[in-house]
Amino acid sequence: MIIVSDTTPLSELAKVGQVALLQGVFGQVIIPKEVHDELTKGNHPAIVALQAVDWIEVRSVSDSQKVSTLRTQTQLGLGECGAIILAEELGATRLLLDDQEARTEALSRNLPVIGTVGVLLLAKRRGLIPSVRQILDDLIAQGTYISQKLYQDVLTQAQE
Length: 160
Prior knowledge:
The protein is mainly alpha-helical. 59% of the residues lie in helices and 10% in strands. A three-stranded parallel sheet has the order 1-4-5.
């Protein structure tokens, strides 16, 4: 299984102390250098998480021009473009993305996408967490926007 992640899923889960769920659900996660650079700037909560784990692998895309071209064509962020191109190069099983425009682009390229909320649902189904609600509430308390409809839909799927 090859899992490539953009910045946001790692960032959001790090904010609430749940980044280890990615290892529990997927084992190893690969991030492009662009995502690593975004996560390790400033006082980001993910800095400590990245330094403390050995299951996140940083890889460079083979052709950085593809990242630049995608960014010019779509106006997506550098991390999102790097993640999409790396997922294509590696034939990723899943691409972790939250941004709707990035997800739309990835899906148009036939990349299988999952977001932070989807990871929480998988974690619950696998018995890694007892409740999705608490983590959703923690994310919202940390400033993550989750629409009321998505919140309710997720709780319904999680049978909470």
